[in-house]
Design goal:
This protein has about 290 residues and is α+β, with helices and mostly antiparallel strands. About 70% of the residues lie in helices and about 5% in strands. The protein has one domain. A hairpin with a 2-residue loop joins β1 and β2.
Amino acid sequence: MLQTMFLTVLNMSITASAAILPVLGARLLLRRAPKVFSYALWAVVLFRLLCPVSPSSVISLYNVLETPAAEAGPVGHMAYLPLPSDEENTPVLPAAPAEQAEDAAAPAVAPETEGISLSPLAAAGALWLSGAAALALLNTVRWVKLRRRLLCALPLRENVYLADHIPVPFVMGLVRPRIYLPSDLAEAEQAYIIRHEQHHIRRGDLLFRLLAFAALCIHWFNPLVWLAFTLAGRDMEMSCDEAVLRQSGSQIRADYSLSLLRYSVGKNRFIGAPLAFGVGDTRERIENVMK
């Protein structure tokens, strides 16, 4: 069971890698376009990472593994088929006790040989599952610690809360998302930062982020998936920045950039952190805002 799961994930990772490379190229071509287009391309990669059903492809791992099995199957069955001439001409004699013992012991040899041949695959499957569980567990522990910090958060209005001891503004919660702001946040910054987080909520970025992190846990062994996770997060944040500037006007660009710079210092860089205002490549985001 574990070996089958690992082979399925490995095949999904290979096909997803074939989708990541074109998206990386398209992202370079769209570097002057609004980032919402680059962000939308990552949905294709996310689908390939999470969908176990894929069309037949020459790069599929199963094409490599199934071919020898299909060729070996008929040969194995032919070896155990009795010949009609033997049944007609040769009388059926009772098997000797020694022969019966050999026949009874013969099936026990095959599982032992099969177990030895599959042991490397089983070890790889166990390593994959351990890595995925460790990554998910680490993120869960940090999420619980963050929830404890927010127990004393004070409501500001609607779903906006003020909290002490948080380094950056962020949005958290999938069913009932809440926006948490540091208590020392200046009132002049609140307006556009709240717009930024509200845009995340309206667009469903929290669900996308959760699914992307689940894909990262499943495909943690693939460096291209880590790269895709990072770049998708950057495109998500920059597209939110652009949406806020369209709503508020270009006159806030300088203040907005200063806020990005301020909350990029000491921010939580853990990959499972909520959608935070200062997350991402600060230099790239500021350059995008000023353009």
